[in-house]
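Reminder to self: tokens first, then the designed residues, so the page reads top to bottom the way the pipeline ran.
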């Protein structure tokens, strides 16, 4: 079987991981720009200065370790992978030509908010920043590639962090809506598919990374999430008013969650863990807070401050489609188990499946389960906007990269995607594998953890020519697209 004729095959990226040009075109700093390189085993570091003048760094994961009164910025002697990325800022024509050679129907990218509004709270955007994305969209359109744009992808302007505490401050809603108004107006007719926040459910796990939130208490984080919900809903309504052709979606990190055994306690934990994922999409797709979350807030003593019209805004701003990332599944248990990782999430090892070099469990069937779960729950079109295998690629003496392991991973996942569509009736818009061109890992800051069909000569310390070359998977994916998924 084949997928629908208008199926959007493509690839996905994020500005802070591949764009570069951080100090060019009048761009301001974002949260990503003060996070240093990491490693396979150590969380990346946030750079800050305390009011006493002391310098330090803390892992991005636990917000509780971020000091009160810290001012975030760039320090000399530190390596920041986002500052150059893989230099798409200067090489976008070359890269887009390679995407076109593969046959991309769409390309997912993010706009760097601080490139348009350097501090984040300005009323007037940077014309130089706007012009850059005009050029990118025009180049994509030249090859009939549909842009799929994430409006905020772990790129909160640092000015909003240092001045307001990020999304914990309600004023960020208006700053974001002004930013969206600029995008929808300027790129009307050039961009049709939008997503408001990347992996919005990461706000409950890595709040600095996802929203510039530096306070660790549960109430502050829940309030910040509410502000993003309201901002997204306002953006959806505004985007439809400016251009009725706009399709505006959400984006969550997702994966199948299993109880490790048939023990009822394990199944109850799986239900609770799944609901923690669904909470974000429940609000954004249905337009109201689910009862289970309200009860949880009540038990924990969390009280969200809402404006009088917030509930109405949420109802009026439901998303058009649901985008999600899928890399792995995980198990939960009421007893002890071997811990594993995967896309900023934790669980215990599933004995029936193998794992990647980074400990992410490989579960293609879980993608079919995820697609069915989301479709049955929301009845809204789905879009797989991230999926892929991070691995160490070896360049052979002849310059080739024989990444059969990546082909195997993607082949299995596309096969399950096909079953979800053709056997289960899931409505799926498209598929954009993550890091279609090698880029900086979000979790570790590494370059050696590669996902792409296109190899970029760059190492973990920022050395290399940045030259591009085609991997074996490049040619495989080209045939997949040409055959609309029938030749795997």
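Designed residues (488 positions):
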């Amino acid at each position: 079987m084949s997928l629908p004729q208008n199926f959007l095959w493509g690839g996905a990226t994020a500005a802070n991981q591949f764009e570069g040009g951080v100090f060019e075109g009048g761009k301001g700093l974002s949260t990503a720009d003060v996070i240093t390189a990491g490693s396979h085993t150590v969380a990346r570091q946030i750079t800050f200065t305390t009011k006493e003048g002391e310098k330090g760094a803390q892992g991005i994961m636990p917000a509780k370790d971020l000091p009160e009164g810290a001012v975030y910025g760039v320090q000399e002697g530190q390596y920041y992978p986002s500052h150059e990325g893989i230099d798409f800022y200067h090489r976008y024509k070359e890269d887009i030509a390679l995407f076109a050679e593969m046959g991309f129907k769409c390309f997912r990218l993010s706009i760097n908010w601080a490139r348009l509004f350097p501090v984040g709270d300005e009323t007037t955007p940077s014309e130089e920043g706007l012009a850059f994305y005009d050029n990118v969209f025009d180049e994509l359109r030249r090859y009939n590639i549909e842009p799929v744009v994430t409006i905020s992808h772990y790129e909160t302007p640092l000015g909003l962090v240092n001045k307001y505490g990020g999304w914990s401050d309600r004023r960020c809603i208006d700053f974001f809506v002004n930013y969206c108004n600029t995008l929808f107006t300027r790129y009307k007719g050039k961009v049709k598919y939008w997503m408001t926040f990347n992996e919005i459910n990461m706000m409950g796990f890595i709040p600095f990374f996802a929203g510039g939130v530096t306070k660790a208490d549960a109430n502050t984080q829940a309030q910040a999430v509410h502000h993003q919900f309201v901002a997204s809903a306002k953006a959806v309504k505004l985007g439809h008013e400016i251009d009725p052709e706009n399709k505006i979606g959400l984006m969550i990190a997702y994966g199948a969650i299993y109880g490790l055994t048939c023990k009822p306690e394990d199944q109850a934990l799986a239900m609770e863990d799944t609901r923690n994922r669904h909470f974000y999409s429940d609000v954004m797709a249905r337009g109201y807070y689910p009862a289970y979350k309200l009860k949880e807030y009540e038990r924990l003593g969390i009280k969200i401050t809402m404006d009088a019209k917030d509930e109405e805004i949420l109802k009026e701003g439901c998303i058009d489609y649901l985008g999600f990332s899928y890399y792995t599944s995980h198990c939960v248990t009421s007893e002890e188990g071997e811990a594993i990782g995967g896309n900023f999430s934790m669980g215990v090892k599933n004995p029936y499946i193998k794992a990647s070099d980074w400990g992410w469990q490989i579960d293609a069937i879980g993608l079919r389960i995820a697609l069915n779960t989301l479709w049955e729950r929301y009845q809204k079109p789905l879009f797989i906007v991230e999926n892929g295998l991070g691995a160490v690629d070896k360049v052979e003496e002849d310059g080739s990269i024989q990444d059969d392991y990546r082909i195997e991973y993607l082949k299995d996942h596309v096969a399950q995607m096909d079953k979800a569509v053709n056997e289960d009736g899931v409505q799926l818009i498209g598929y954009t594998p993550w890091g279609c061109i090698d880029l900086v890992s979000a979790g570790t800051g590494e370059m050696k953890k590669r996902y792409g069909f296109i190899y970029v000569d760059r190492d973990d310390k920022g050395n290399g020519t940045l030259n591009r070359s085609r991997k074996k998977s490049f040619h495989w994916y080209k045939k997949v697209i040409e055959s609309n998924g029938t030749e795997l």
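The longest helix spans residues 218-242.
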